[in-house]
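User: Fold this, then the next.

Assistant: Folding the first:
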Amino acid sequence: QVQLVESGGGLVQPGGSLRLSCAASGSIFRLNAMGWYRQAPGKQRELVATITNGGSTNYADSVKGRFTISRDNAKNTVYLQMNSLKPEDTAVYYCKVSGGTMSSIPWAYWGQGTQVTVSS
């Protein structure tokens, strides 16, 4: 089993910044891609950003240039630095972590979600 603990959400004014963290713990043999997704009320969950274990990143067009994803492999933690936040960034943000067991069986887990609200 793998546990994910997210932190860093909250209320921020437009133009402000927040940093989300997601720490993975438990039976981790190998971590692969880590990423952030978000779901606004009445909308489907969408990809925000992903990062491979080699450091390659991918971003949704709506956040390019404003958000930065990074990871600390020693701490099994992924971060999302969010700058120049807009009201349309308001959503519940979820981290997703994928990996493999010693027998090369793939797995993926979702975090519990953290609320980000951008409002004046």
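Now the next one, as you asked:
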Amino acid sequence: QVQLVESGGGLVQPGGSLRLSCAASGSIFKTDVMGWYRQAPGKQRELAAAITSGGTTNYADSVKGRFTISRDNAKNTVYLQMISLKPEDTAVYYCNVRRSFILNTKDYWGQGTQVTVSS
């Protein structure tokens, strides 16, 4: 079983920066992909960024060049550095671990952390 605890959300002005952290307890496999999803009010949850244990990253087009995801495999922790934040980045951000099996995948989720970008 994997448990995820996020931290680092808050209120920031447009153009500001925030760094989210997510610490995973339990076993994290080398094949697990760790990532950050976000869900704005009235919208579906969407991928913001993801990273493999080898460092391969994937970003939503809307955050490319502004968000950087990183991962500390020794600490089972994933980070999301966000700069040049915009009001449309306002959302609940969820940490995710996606574990792949032969026939399916399993997702583990954190409780979410609120990010509000507003003047």
